């Protein structure tokens, strides 16, 4: 047996599997979050926010995964039409082209799985069903949502103990990429692509100085971040995070200037 660490008196790493040493688990979550391995049905909690988001309390009848998507359910009828998806991404500040791409990817891929909660027949309008959103859970993901769409605090904390290399409480694009690669399952190209799209979009929306904060990610899981962004944009102050075309052009200009000098 290994030396007791943070109250754990059994081995949490095996010598013949180096990744168990490299990808450390968060061992002391239970000092702040009771029973962190037990999935929370309607609250996304962390060590910093053990009570979750205030806004989630209004949606106690919905799982955390269901709470993630009402931003796109514009008329609150439990159905997300392709146009709803497009408008939601536009409200978040994405371009027309990216919003159209997101609409096609999301509604084309997730309509039928979520439709299975009510019927075997495909939906002719490619609507996403909020009530069956857990059926759209794919492989090669972080495991933070369980198979019913509940939130697992231990898995969320493990995300940062394993992939936040500098312990900054945030993830860079490179660290997210390493996480995506580390979570890949065999023969699961759909899951790989979905993870790249989801975390790539998250980074584009939330990055600040190249990193996405832990709290912003937590609010992404319960959907409260989307309402914050929309309100900030509507109030005229704008959303001060994210990476868009202007940032890309600015980056290109800086690189060109550095090359010339």
From TrEMBL:
InterPro entries assigned to the protein according to its UniProt record, in alphabetical order: Caleosin-related, EF-hand-dom_pair, EF_hand_dom
Organism superkingdom: Eukaryota
One Pfam entry name: Caleosin
One function term, GO molecular function aspect: calcium ion binding
Domain EF-hand: 151-186
Family statement: Belongs to the caleosin family.
Designated name of the protein: EF-hand domain-containing protein
The species this protein was found in: Staphylotrichum longicolle
